[in-house]
Write a structure and sequence with these properties.
Distance between the termini: 94 Å
Strand order of the largest sheet: 14-9-8-17
Number of domains: 4
Oligomer: single chain
Largest sheet: 4 strands, mixed
CATH architecture of the largest domain: 6 Propeller
CATH topology of the largest domain: Neuraminidase
Radius of gyration: 34 Å
Shape: globular
Number of helices: 21
Helix content: 25-40%
Number of strands: 41
CATH class of the largest domain: Mainly Beta
Strand content: 15-25%
């Protein structure tokens, strides 16, 4: 090599220069997200590449290898593993609070399992990603050359989603790192709307003002987060992080302490701190028990399934204080961890440590640019189209002359020049006239053109006004973020504890639930909702089941096909949500019963008595139901059958069934032996012809049997007129049914009891039991409820008192069907009088599915 080609440099200076170049490349092009869209370059390229490939959320999945190849060959000249790993993480619901990719196949697990190879998995964009990419085709963002200069790629996405905050970010650059926690989308959108409302006085907006909306980080894996930390100046760890952009918060696993059989206890872990490996945690606990560092644990197992996480830690009978063991687990395992907050992101290509307010402000400024550029693009397109429409309408107004001019012209160019000169048209207008198909000459087509022209003129005026007024642009941004909240918002997952870590007793998930009571309703459209402390019935939404519950209870929902799901009452939303999403029961199955069971799950006394429309009955131990979790089956129901009634019984009482044709049978529940969940039951009544059971209830000898038909005829009859028979008989008449009418409901009532009548039009009405006239058993009914044409009565629900299991403060037990008619003082007095009796009270009511 010749001496002339060798450049001599100072090695120290060259190392400094090269390392700075390398550092900036890692910082800007690899490790740190852009504050505007919250994405690193590889994530942005994956989403943009998928969008260009046409794998939107409403399109079929495409092989991951195809997507990786698209991104690798066009935008990201690095290893294929980096692209695939970035895409996989954006599809993991335990990694991102709001996943941006919808994956199909094995995309890993919270146990740390690796995803399947890219040739096996498929993916498409998640619905939320559409909001990140919306309007990108409207010149809303700047594009730059790709790595070889043959294509263009976006330097940032339009991002109507405040993605940096809602999904967070983590990355290690050179000499710096970022670790931004995820947040709840609804809370962030509310904070943005609040900030926009005070945009002109933004300097007066404080961190505390924003924290009225953003309570704190909201991790995808849930858990419990402590607001206060003695290691943080000022104590409030969350506020300190939001004020400075840097801080530390302590997160704990969510764990319950349950009573087990034979006086034992168990710890049940249902949520873990963010980024904690479940299988690694279980191994860590096992090692500590094996080494003798934690005592009192006899068994450890993972019962997690598709319905949720459930780690069972069985304790020995000698453990007097389960909370002490839980405290040791928090101390020595990742069940308690610290999340270091570093809000570091790229602002104008430079890394900046950002407080909460500045992050929100930059996002709004970014959206201002996007909305302005989008409006300018739409305005230009609207003006272009309006210009063409003006020419077309002018031609249609002078149609005969236009046709003559075109026919006399020797060629198209001459015709175009003639049109431009005669009617003072532009080149584009004349071309559009010559390209106009003959169908445009019809009157209807002309009217369409005129309507479109008016629409474009109105749009032009709106966009011009919008671009002149910055307040209107801010109003559009505010409207869009609130629409985003309405579409994608969901309840907070991470619970914030307003106390200091390390002070006081060990906190269990049970301790975090606020005390109180609430009504829970299931509706015919398959939704569930928590109604509040006072029961309110709406005229256009009739419940199929109602239950009065303590906020610390577990809710059990049972469908007509015997499927059941369990969830904490406190976890329910105030607005109706699909039961399939809430408790995991199959969609399309009608909920016929709701139970509220003590969360501590002691050995509950009593039974569930189930009845189907084909007359099959079954008895299940209530304790077995209380021990279940997630989704499970309480009865094996035949294909042509369905459950019509679920009641809580003492175990030594009587039950009564009534059929559509007015037959009834009364027998001892002891004739039905207790069965397991997978059993199908035994015959309760012998049906004649095509008759079906429509309702069932528990007998109270001091009350009366109220029945009502589909056409609103009803009555009540003393139970003494219904003889006690053996199971599986044909029974006796309960009411004479006329013509095509059929019995719709049964409830054992007293004259002062309340009854809910429901109809096929979703209406519900609360009436007194005395409204039902007392008549003999073998008689017909009279008009209790008026029904209109094409409407029938669908059910009768008898409100009852809550069942008391004699458990601790929170465990007020299965409360069968709903309204407590007596005032609280009277209920307390009645409960005191019942203390010496078996604590399980009778359950009543009926809610009948339609006959088929």
């Amino acid at each position: 090599m010749s001496e002339e080609r060798i450049i001599r440099v100072n090695i120290e200076e060259e190392m400094k220069s090269s390392y700075i170049d390398y550092s900036m490349s890692v910082i800007v092009s690899r490790a740190l997200p852009d504050v505007r869209d919250g994405l690193k370059p590889v994530q942005r390229r994956v989403l943009y590449g998928m969008n260009e490939l046409g794998v939107q959320s409403n399109k079929p999945y495409k092989k991951s290898a195809r997507i990786v190849g698209e991104v690798l060959g066009k935008y990201h000249p690095h290893g294929d593993s980096s692209v695939y790993e970035a895409m996989v993480r954006m599809a993991q619901e335990w990694s991102l609070r709001y996943p941006l990719v919808d994956g199909q196949g094995n995309f890993g697990s919270v146990d740390g399992d690796a995803p399947a190879a890219m040739r096996y998995t498929e993916a498409r964009l998640a619905p939320l990603s559409a909001s990140l990419l919306a309007d990108i085709e409207k010149n809303t963002v700047d594009f730059g050359d790709n790595f070889d200069g043959t294509l263009k790629e976006p330097l940032v996405l339009p991002s109507a989603v405040p993605n940096l905050l809602v999904n967070g970010a983590a990355g290690i650059a050179v000499g710096m790192a970022t670790n931004i926690p995820p947040h709840n989308l609804g809370e962030v959108c509310d904070a943005i709307a609040y900030l926009i409302g005070r945009w002109e006085k933004i300097d007066r907006v404080s961190v505390d003002d924003l924290m009225n909306h953003i309570k704190g980080p909201d991790f995808p894996t849930g858990g419990v987060m402590f607001r206060y930390n003695e290691a943080v100046e000022g104590g409030d760890a969350i506020r300190a992080a939001y004020a400075t952009g840097r801080g530390r918060v302590v997160i704990q696993a969510k764990a319950f302490i349950e009573e087990a059989e034979r006086g034992k206890s168990r710890i049940v872990v249902t949520e873990l701190p963010y980024q904690v490996n479940k299988s690694g945690l279980i191994e860590r606990i096992a090692d500590l028990v094996r080494d003798g560092k934690i005592e009192g644990i006899t068994d450890l197992r993972d019962e997690s399934d598709r319905s949720g996480m459930r780690i069972i830690i069985e304790l020995s009978r000698t453990v007097e204080d389960p909370k002490a063991v839980l405290g040791q687990l928090y101390k020595h395992t990742p069940m308690q961890s610290t999340f270091g907050i570093i809000n570091l992101a790229l602002v104008d290509g430079e890394p900046r440590l950002l407080p909460l307010k500045r992050m929100l402000q930059i996002f709004v400024e970014h959206r201002q640019v996007i909305v302005r550029r989008r409006s300018q693009f739409d305005l230009a397109r609207a003006k272009e189209r309006a210009h063409i429409l003006e020419g077309l309408l002018k031609a249609l107004t002078n149609l005969d002359e236009v046709i003559r001019l075109i026919r006399r012209s020797p060629d198209a160019d001459a015709a175009k020049q003639g049109l431009m000169k005669r009617f003072k048209l532009s080149d584009a207008q004349a071309t559009a006239i010559l390209d106009m198909p003959l169908r445009r000459l019809a009157r209807l087509e002309r009217e369409k053109l005129e309507a479109e022209y008016k629409e474009k003129k109105a749009l032009i005026k709106y966009l011009e006004d919008l671009l002149k007024d910055e307040k209107k642009i801010l109003g559009v941004i505010r409207s869009e973020v609130l629409q985003l909240k309405e579409k994608f918002g969901d309840p907070r997952r991470t619970q914030i504890v307003e106390s200091q870590i390390g002070k006081g007793e060990v906190v269990t998930a049970h301790d975090l639930i606020e005390s109180g009571e609430a009504w829970v309703a299931a509706y015919d459209d398959g939704t569930l909702a928590r109604l509040g402390e006072e029961l309110t019935l709406t005229e256009d939404k009739a419940p199929t089941a109602l239950v009065h519950a303590d906020m610390r209870d577990n809710l059990v929902a049972i469908t007509e096909l015997g499927q059941a799901g369990m969830i904490g009452v406190h976890q329910l939303a105030d607005q109706p949500m699909p039961a399939a999403d809430v408790v995991g029961v199959p969609s399309g199955q009608r909920i016929v019963a709701l139970l509220a069971l003590p969360a501590a799950k002691p050995e509950l006394p009593g039974y569930l008595f189930l009845t189907t429309r084909l007359g099959v009955v079954k008895r299940v131990l209530l304790a077995d139901v209380a021990k279940a979790f997630g989704t499970f089956s309480v009865m094996n129901v035949a294909d042509d059958d369905a459950i019509v009634s679920v009641r809580v019984t003492r175990g030594e009482g009587e039950v009564m069934l009534v059929t559509a044709r007015g037959q009834s049978i009364r027998f001892s529940e002891e004739e039905v032996r207790p069965m397991g969940f997978n059993a199908g039951g035994v015959a309760g009544i012998r049906l004649v012809g095509e008759d079906l059971v429509t309702a069932a209830d528990v007998v109270d000898v001091e009350a009366e049997a109220a029945v009502i038909t589909e056409q609103g005829a009803g009555k009540r009859t003393p139970l003494s007129e219904y003889p006690r028979q053996g199971r599986a008989g044909q029974g006796v008449i309960a009411i004479k049914v006329a013509g095509d009418d059929a019995v719709a409901g049964l409830a054992i009532v007293g004259p002062k009891d309340d009854v809910i009548i429901t109809t096929s039009r979703g209406k519900s009405k609360l009436v007194k039991g005395r409204l039902f006239k007392s008549l003999g058993r073998a008689t017909g009914g009279y008009g209790v409820q008026h029904v209109v044409k094409n409407e029938v009565i669908t059910g009768l629900v008898k409100p009852v008192e809550r069942i008391d299991f004699g458990a601790d403060d929170s465990a007020s037990g299965p409360k069968q069907l709903e309204l407590i008619s007596e005032p609280p003082a009277k209920r307390a007095k009645a409960a005191k009088a019942e203390k010496k009796k078996l604590p399980v009270k009778k359950s009543r009511g009926a809610s009948r599915p339609s006959r088929s």
